[in-house]
Design a protein that fits this description.
Rossmann fold, alpha/beta, 6 strands, 6-stranded parallel sheet, single chain, Arc Repressor Mutant, subunit A, 230 residues
Length: 230
């Protein structure tokens, strides 16, 4: 029996919450383990239900970004995905700074959301295409990486190969299969890459790679840039 991707949905409005739940629960391999409306309930559900992913609204009472930080500090192996209507740059930056694995706008279709959840469960990442393109233009998230590619030059050959595959949208599992490493070893390399690039998460690392190597953001998402050499 294939593994079930355990998901918590935290959104203030019941109708929207139920609609997201229906879209995901109709898909094979996804189990909705909790639907909650508030931040405290969301944090409790992560502890009690141990989901792989929590879809968290950025704007409910109590603050979605602050909740994401607390959740990740307490349980770093959960994927916190923001599901929101906000396209504000400061909201996107705050969410990425908190360490979220995805920033998804609420206009996403049900089928695409299912695919995003599956990709995230495999260690992927997602930023809505328009927001990713805007981040690339403004370059506000590089931290110490710089725009000259100097930090990338400090990567080992193995680390560079892993970063290139990350920029292509591959999950940790897919990267491991390509290079003959266990998934936990890929995670170790990924942590080292993030530290060397002085970025805060996989999304920013992918953006740095795209800028340095001339990759284009695809029409689908950061998780699948159109042209990168691997």
């Amino acid at each position: 029996m294939p593994r079930q991707i355990r998901v918590v949905i935290a959104a203030e409005h019941p109708l929207y919450r139920d609609g997201v739940a229906r879209a995901l629960s109709d898909a094979d391999g996804i189990e909705i383990v909790a639907k909650v409306g508030g931040i405290r309930e969301a944090e409790a559900a992560v502890v009690e239900m141990r989901p792989a992913i929590i879809l968290l609204d950025i704007s409910p009472p109590g603050g979605g970004v602050q909740a994401a930080r607390r959740i990740l500090a307490a349980k770093s192996d959960v994927c916190v995905a923001m599901l929101t209507i906000s396209e504000r740059d400061d909201d996107v930056k705050a969410a990425l700074d908190a360490g979220v694995c995805a920033y998804i706008l609420k206009g996403i279709g049900g089928a695409e959301l299912v695919q995003v959840v599956r990709d995230l469960a495999d260690g992927g990442l997602y930023v809505t295409p328009a927001l990713a393109a805007r981040m690339l233009r403004s370059k506000p998230l590089r931290g110490g990486a710089g725009s000259d590619g100097s930090a990338i030059q400090d990567l080992t050959k193995r680390e560079e190969d892993i970063l290139r595959m990350l920029a292509l949208g591959l999950s940790n599992r897919e990267i491991g299969a390509r290079v003959g490493l266990q998934e936990k070893t890929v995670k170790y390399y990924m942590t080292t890459v993030l530290q060397k690039l002085s970025v805060r998460n996989r999304v920013e690392a992918a953006l740095v790679a795209q800028e340095a190597w001339g990759c284009e953001v695809s029409q689908n998402a950061v998780r699948a840039p159109a042209r990168c050499s691997a």
